[in-house]
C-alpha cells in the first residue's frame, strides 16, 4: 500500500508479488470510494483465511458471510476480479471456487482421499473443482465434448457407449463455465488423450468452440489459462456446403438475417470461419 500521485488517493499495488520485468498493476482508491476500500480489505481477509486454513469457498458463501457490507453479489464479484488482476492469479488460486453445470459420463472414475469412488461409468457426474483433488482411474482413449445437453442425452440413449466404451462424453450445456473448462483442461493434461468437439456450424457453435479452446473474454482475469487448447473440431463445418448435392438439401421455409441486418457480427463470423477452416479440404 502506498500514497498515490493522485491527490488524497490510496494505491494498492503488486510490488511484493511481481518480478522486475512485469508491468506494475494497481488499484487506485480515490476520495469517496471508502466502500470500495472496505470491500477490497474484507475480501483480502476472507481470501487470506481460506488459503491459511487450506479451505475453499464459493463466491456466494463469501457474500453471505458479509452480506451487510457487500449489499449485493455484484459488489463482491467486481472486487474478486480486481484482486485477481492485481495479483495476476486465477480465482481458483485464491481458493474461491464455483459451481458448474458441466457433466461427465464414460470411462473415468475418481477416488477420493477417504476411499470413496465417484464412477462416471455408472451415471453422469456433475463437474466440480474438487474433482482435481482426487486420483484418476481411467481407461479413456479419447474425449468427446458436445455442445448441448440434449445431444449428450441422445447419444447415451442411442447406445453410444456400446460402440465406444472407452471414451468420455462431456457437455457444458451450451457456453462452458470456468469450472467446466478448468476441470476438463486438468483431465486432458493428466490423461494425455485426444479431445474432440461436436458443435453446431453456426455463430453460436463457433463461439462455444472458441471458448473451450481459448477461454472467454468475460472471465479472462479470473479464469486465466482455463482453456483446452488441444480440442479439435469434429464434424460438419460450413466449408463443406459445396460438397452437398443439390437434391439432398432442404428447402428454406423462413427468412434469415443478411449482412445488412446483422452488421459487424456477421462479418466477425465470416472472419472466424475463414481463419479456422481455410485449409480444410473438401471431401
TrEMBL record:
Catalytic activity: ATP-dependent breakage, passage and rejoining of double-stranded DNA
Catalytic residues as annotated in Swiss-Prot or TrEMBL: 64 (o-(5'-phospho-dna)-tyrosine intermediate)
Domain Topoisomerase 6 subunit A/Spo11 TOPRIM: 142-236
One Gene Ontology MF term: DNA topoisomerase type II (double strand cut, ATP-hydrolyzing) activity
Family annotation (CDD domains): TOPRIM_TopoIIB_SPO
Superkingdom of origin: Eukaryota
Gene Ontology terms describing biological process: meiotic DNA double-strand break formation; meiotic DNA double-strand break processing; reciprocal meiotic recombination
Ranges of residues in domain Spo11/DNA topoisomerase VI subunit A N-terminal: 35-96
GO cellular component: nuclear chromosome
Protein EC: 5.6.2.2
Essential cofactor(s): Mg(2+)
Alphabetically ordered keywords of this record: DNA-binding, Isomerase, Magnesium, Metal-binding, Topoisomerase
Family classification: Belongs to the TOP6A family.
PANTHER family for this protein: MEIOTIC RECOMBINATION PROTEIN SPO11
Official protein name in the record: DNA topoisomerase (ATP-hydrolyzing)
Organismal lineage: Eukaryota, Metazoa, Ecdysozoa, Nematoda, Chromadorea
